[in-house]
Design goal:
The complex is a heterodimer of chains A (112) and B (114).
Chain A (H helix, E strand, L loop, with lengths): L4 E3 L2 E5 L4 E6 L4 E9 L5 E8 L4 E4 L2 E6 L4 E6 L8 E9 L7 E2 L3 E6 L1
Parallel strand pairs in A: 2-11
Antiparallel strand pairs in A: 1-3, 3-8, 4-5, 4-9, 6-7, 7-8, 9-10, 9-11
Chain B lengths: L4 E3 L2 E4 L5 E6 L6 E7 L5 E8 L2 E5 L7 E4 L6 E5 L8 E8 L7 E3 L3 E5 L1
Parallel strand pairs in B: 2-11
Antiparallel strand pairs in B: 1-3, 3-8, 4-5, 4-9, 5-6, 7-8, 9-10, 9-11
Classes of the chains: A mainly beta (112), B mainly beta (114).
Chain lengths: 112, 114
């Protein structure tokens, strides 16, 4: 099935450290989007990266995409306690219709 | 900043009852979606809506579900006869164009069927 998988499932780091989360997917994509979800809350859009892009930045966020490996990574630099949340990748598959297919998510905990 | 708003934030209903979940998408967006997230599981696509009709739906979106854009601003999801397994967080989303642009999600409605 066309499902994204993130790893690690859970990540605990100290404030100020960098956090890296990875996402793998199975077939060709149009784009990949990263979302954050605070506990029990809505999904906040972070970054969209298209299949012809390799890297994008937004503030402390850096997303890479390797279509040959069918994988993406999200790097949060200089993490803060407020970054504590679940992070999801979601893909728009080529020929898969106009819908997002979400991964399983990484639970990030940033400790003071 | 424009946002997608959903009401109510929580809804408790008895099995077999009808519920309507409401959403106000971002005003200049053209595509609207419903997703759901059962506790502890992935976010799942339910339905997409464009040009006043359903453009795509998942296997989950059976005859018990319907969507409507009654007045040009609201976008609703109706579940005709709720089941226990419909308990989930339901998210509305909208995008300016198709999903080659960002999708913006609301805060969700937590539906509990008892």
């Amino acid at each position: 099935s066309q499902q994204g998988e993130e790893d690690p499932q859970a990540l605990s780091i100290q404030e100020g450290e960098n956090a890296t989360m990875n996402c793998s997917y199975k077939t060709s994509i149009n784009n990949l989007q990263w979302y954050r979800q605070n506990s029990g809350r809505g999904l906040v859009h972070l970054i969209l990266i298209r299949s012809n892009e390799r890297e994008k930045h937004s503030g402390r966020l850096r997303v890479t995409l390797d279509t040959s490996k069918k994988s993406s990574s999200l790097l949060i630099t200089a993490s803060r306690a407020a970054d504590t949340a679940s992070y999801f990748c979601a893909t728009v598959y080529t020929g898969g219709g106009n819908k997002l297919t979400f991964g399983t998510g990484t639970q990030l905990k940033v400790e003071l | 900043e424009p946002e997608v708003t959903q009401t109510p934030s929580h809804q408790v209903t008895q099995m077999g009852q009808e519920v309507i979940l409401r959403c106000v998408p971002i005003s200049n967006h053209l595509y609207f979606y419903w997703y759901r997230q059962i506790l502890g599981q992935k976010v799942e696509f339910l339905v997409s809506f464009y040009n006043n009709e359903i453009s795509e739906k998942s296997e989950i979106f059976d005859d018990q579900f319907s969507v409507e854009r009654p007045d040009g601003s609201n976008f609703t999801l109706k579940i005709r006869s709720t089941k226990l397994e419909d308990s989930a967080m339901y998210f509305c989303a909208s995008s300016a164009n198709d999903l080659n642009t960002e999708a913006f999600f609301g805060q969700g409605t937590r539906l509990t069927v008892v």
